[in-house]
Amino acid sequence: MIIIMERNATKVQIQRVIDFLKDNDFQVRHNTGEVHTVIDALGDKTTITPGRLAAFEGVKEVKIIREPFRLASRDRKPEDTVIEFKNGVKIGGGNKPVAIVGPCSVEADYEGLLEIATAAKEMGCEFLRGGAFKPRTSPYDFQGYGEKALQFLKRASEATGLLVVSEVMDASDLPMMLDYVDVLQVGARNVQNFKLLHAVGKCNKPVILKRGLASTIREFLLAAEHIMYQGNMQVILCERGIRSFDSAFTRNVMDIASIPVIKKYSHLPVIVDPSHGTGQRYLIEPMAKAGLVVGADGVMIEIHNDPENALSDGKQSLPLPMFREVMGRINKFNELIKEDRQHQAANTI
Amino acid sequence: MIIIMERNATKVQIQRVIDFLKDNDFQVRHNTGEVHTVIDALGDKTTITPGRLAAFEGVKEVKIIREPFRLASRDRKPEDTVIEFKNGVKIGGGNKPVAIVGPCSVEADYEGLLEIATAAKEMGCEFLRGGAFKPRTSPYDFQGYGEKALQFLKRASEATGLLVVSEVMDASDLPMMLDYVDVLQVGARNVQNFKLLHAVGKCNKPVILKRGLASTIREFLLAAEHIMYQGNMQVILCERGIRSFDSAFTRNVMDIASIPVIKKYSHLPVIVDPSHGTGQRYLIEPMAKAGLVVGADGVMIEIHNDPENALSDGKQSLPLPMFREVMGRINKFNELIKEDRQHQAANTI
Amino acid sequence: MIIIMERNATKVQIQRVIDFLKDNDFQVRHNTGEVHTVIDALGDKTTITPGRLAAFEGVKEVKIIREPFRLASRDRKPEDTVIEFKNGVKIGGGNKPVAIVGPCSVEADYEGLLEIATAAKEMGCEFLRGGAFKPRTSPYDFQGYGEKALQFLKRASEATGLLVVSEVMDASDLPMMLDYVDVLQVGARNVQNFKLLHAVGKCNKPVILKRGLASTIREFLLAAEHIMYQGNMQVILCERGIRSFDSAFTRNVMDIASIPVIKKYSHLPVIVDPSHGTGQRYLIEPMAKAGLVVGADGVMIEIHNDPENALSDGKQSLPLPMFREVMGRINKFNELIKEDRQHQAANTI
Amino acid sequence: MIIIMERNATKVQIQRVIDFLKDNDFQVRHNTGEVHTVIDALGDKTTITPGRLAAFEGVKEVKIIREPFRLASRDRKPEDTVIEFKNGVKIGGGNKPVAIVGPCSVEADYEGLLEIATAAKEMGCEFLRGGAFKPRTSPYDFQGYGEKALQFLKRASEATGLLVVSEVMDASDLPMMLDYVDVLQVGARNVQNFKLLHAVGKCNKPVILKRGLASTIREFLLAAEHIMYQGNMQVILCERGIRSFDSAFTRNVMDIASIPVIKKYSHLPVIVDPSHGTGQRYLIEPMAKAGLVVGADGVMIEIHNDPENALSDGKQSLPLPMFREVMGRINKFNELIKEDRQHQAANTI
Questions:
Q1: pTM for the full predicted model
Q2: Chains near B (3 or more Cβ pairs under 8 Å)
Q3: Which residue of C has its CA nearest to A76?
Q4: Of D215, D187, D219, residue with least CA distance to D200
């Protein structure tokens, strides 16, 4: 930690900070310049957090040098985390990028879902996604079919061999959900719902954690840390766009650079969700490719058998014929850029 | 609703939208210009949401004219909501602005808390706030003392007559919390934790709902709507700063204009939290006054008997001697600007 | 400066940074922790900028401790800058807040302008503002009447005794403009048009510098520094809203806290422009008051004799009858909060 | 245009808007709902701008349907603009992506510049860029060598056959600059410096226009429109990152999706600048590829023969050996994704 004192900090104030640090077994050096005194402190930040020190009289700023996430950090675990599923599918570690596709919400029509899942399987996708509990900005919007939706997902999964991904919105739903899903998803709005992070942290299931609309990369990795700190190391991060000043043409701004940044600082797999990231069908293919080329371990795409009658997000869902074309090109693209991805992986680590 | 069709939308696409709307009992008119066709539709948006229409082929954009919140809207309820407590304290409706003060987290030291509460009472404050469950960005930070903290708050409340405000982080904690607190707080990070909003919506307790770091004003009012839709009409909104590109001098940017905006569009009371809004002691007084002058119904301020040993947010907490001075000036200021507030209230409605 | 080395920086890389700093007469100390080496350097940053050091192999980050603005800094000049005009009007230093009012653009109708100026004078305002050259996002919008507009402003100024403020958009217009205006304005879009900053920096006229839509406070003060570095110390800063993710109800988000922040770090006067800051008539009065209460040295408000026929910004301009009421209340308010402003001034310095 | 009236707009107010529109030869229809009246108006927006109408009493909002840029719009000119240079190099229209490389600023050392240019030529780049006039946030930073720098660029260009790109900061420098450069660059800070846009709009030279840190895509295209409106149709847009709330790991957030968005709405070529977009060497290659895969017509990359001694932006400049590797892989990548780019181009139009 570096503690920068106010320009008018007194000698007594400076000494109190130094004494406090020494009493807590920190190694301390300081340097008094023309304007500011700077104190360098080496020690255990689990006992003394930067916030504690910031509250001392005369302290201007406390700067952390080491990133505050630990379990998620590549410093502690240099090799990529690879998450492996019962059927041999793997996410991360330079394995073939996965594709997670499906409707925004699972609806009353099982045949429609099966049609979606069949198309997904045909196109080589590994995961079927679908919402059972929908976080909706307005209480007047469709809120999901709950457990019935999960039953449909499981049936479609059994019929096709796809793995199931669905969002958990409340810890109390977890025991029930674990029977149905292969991957739990934590949504963007819950990225700092710490109770939920702790609850999924105690499950033995991989978790897709979506970046919040206003999460910094550091906060995003700390949210993963909350899950990992409870024992669950199978966290997959998902870039899905952040809020910006311009939402005239895209719902959010996709922070494509966050993928290689995260890869550099963390060993966790990262996937990319261009459906929510852009909210526009015509941008799904290019933005999926952009994510893959910078190192994403997979893509998540909303598709629907009948978008005009979808109860949510129909606008951004690919109709099945368009999905088949797009996915075909993405599959070919993945073959094409294999070498670029490998180089990218080697380079960011 | 206004539906704007793509410039190359076909006649068939236009007709399908019109037919669908008519089938759902909307009144429809349309206007075909040189470039775009525009469809005006009047009807019940609880059955047909804008998102549904946006998914139709050939639709460029769907624009809602009426604000999507209803129970929270001043259109439906022109008079201010006033929340009254057992001891006669009132929030909203032009009543004297309240003051909600206390430590970020309640700590192990009851005597300290009592000292804080006593100072608060002396200075004419109405509410004691304190965290029992702390949402912390890092899992390595102090997470709160839980029920023990609530017991301390209740004791201090009984000793001083102050009402108790504390944050709920999980629906499962609610039954226990209701015994201790007079007002439930929902934190900024949970503003779109819909399960939690629904749970507090079923309680018969006033709720302080904090604006999320990336909440638009519309989303903020829709979050209140989620609570109200469950039956709880006692919602107090709290402006506490939003995320911006500049965090060098203040933690967040306080959107002071949001207060008169919300007052114009909603009947709910609004308070202002300059402690979290700025993260800087020296800004608490001016920003509290700025909030009050534009119509805030109260202020929330973090104070501490020993900020250097606070387990969280010590940096932004006012030490008690400073608090007494600041609160004294805020009280005088409230007297001074009575007429301005009344004019402001009359004007924004 | 503090130089933080990468975790895998080699000894040779560390030594090269240290040697380079010593060769340039910096005093250097360093501290090698478990993960990072930190180098403290005291010396003259006009010769060696942080950017230079950041480019050295193995350097992770360079942190500046002292703020990079100097002439604008309160460290160098603790007392408030006060700008005094020929007629005795003063801006800054705790003097009565000024009012700068007028139409967005000066239009073809001199009688209209005179009507505006007369109302302004009656209400105790000190300055008449009006655009002669209009920066317009679209080339199809009205671009201003140029010198003719300045002639009108001067005539209205001679008729009423008001001082004239008008925006300069190009250095080549300066010689002509100096004959007509008492204060030059540099608009938000030109806050980093360094050629223009240098040109006004060479004039002997006060300059109102508007904060850019995406200017950090530090960049804003550095823009002022560019002007001052050329010799012109009469800079008045103007907060007029920054870009945020929410523009549904207000054009921009006014960063009211920036006013006391700037007052703490700089001696320059600061004014507030709620017309551009909010873009809504009903928010002008409350936001002007919010700015004044936190220490602003004046307000800038757009008014118009016939807003429905204004060629620009009619929507946000106050019609004259509304202006008289609003200005009357602002004048009374300034009387009321005198003590608060004085306290605020004493406190932020 | 769609004019949405306030919920309490009077019949007289509504009629005045309708009459005004009819008087100006607009075709008008209106629709009065339960809450709002909506007026549809078809006509010439060059005479009556939306801002004019917004100022009418009782108007809540004016919505434009057709994008406000015209010359830049694909509606008016469906085929891609291709800019061709004397030596046969072409930008846009599906031609091979170009590479524009060079130092941030041209420095005193011509040999260094020649070394850079030679490497660039060897690696198949088409353009040499270098700053002669540097826009610098602080007046204490290096401001560029002016005309001498341009002379060096021209000499290096003659030696290698590369075309020259350099930034113009002031209209008065243009006549001199035209002798030296093949492409004028307008920097991000000048994207709404309308005087400069008008000046380059009168030149017969291609212009690279950089997106501002806070420019929406619409504003960016309107800035291009300002240039085109003066007669110069050879505008190349450059995405170089926008300001976001997270600058801990990257200087800006690159809005990669803006490239296919612009391609859909405009016929102008777009390039991508990952050096300024990220500020990090390790992100240049992946983000260049991300830009290319979504359809960028070229990349702009800062390189330097001796980054540790660069007078600006050394941190983000690629040293020559790294540049050779990166450029080699980008060249191969361009070959690889030819088909994807063609598909992308066909798809966004």
A1: 0.94
A2: A, C, D
A3: C35
A4: D187
